[in-house]
Design goal:
4-stranded antiparallel β-sheet; Beta-Lactamase; 26% strand; single chain; globular; 33% helix; alpha+beta
């Protein structure tokens, strides 16, 4: 459970394993991931509907990708998260290497169709 100011109000045991050292949810994001997290929370706040996103936390020199489903209710954000396996990241890296070896151009876009690579 996260307050509107980004303070982590409650963490279950799994969340404590990932985010044990911080009480500020948004402090775990850098650059584009921070903007993506802010957009996710803004959408939950405005629609009051359940939303989903994959976010990458930067903690203790490691990148931790988490699939989140959440909603805003009663002045707080309620999130359920599932850590993505390292295999998912390796598959993404392999795909990136393969795309760079193709004899044609390509672009990578995010969910808003903004070019990211």
């Amino acid at each position: 459970m996260i307050q509107q100011d980004g303070t982590v109000q409650y963490k279950n045991e799994h969340a404590k394993e990932v985010m044990d050292q911080t009480q500020r949810f948004f402090a775990t994001f850098l650059g584009y991931e921070w903007r993506k997290a802010m957009d996710f929370f803004k959408k939950m706040y405005e629609t009051k509907d359940s939303e989903e996103v994959v976010l990458t936390h930067f903690l203790a020199g490691k990148e931790i990708r988490v699939f989140y489903r959440g909603a805003f209710q009663e002045d707080a954000f309620y999130l359920i998260g599932q850590v993505q396996s390292a295999t998912d990241g390796k598959n993404r890296e392999a795909t990136g290497r393969m795309m760079k070896s193709l004899p044609c151009g390509y672009v990578r876009v995010n969910e808003k169709l903004t070019i990211v690579e």
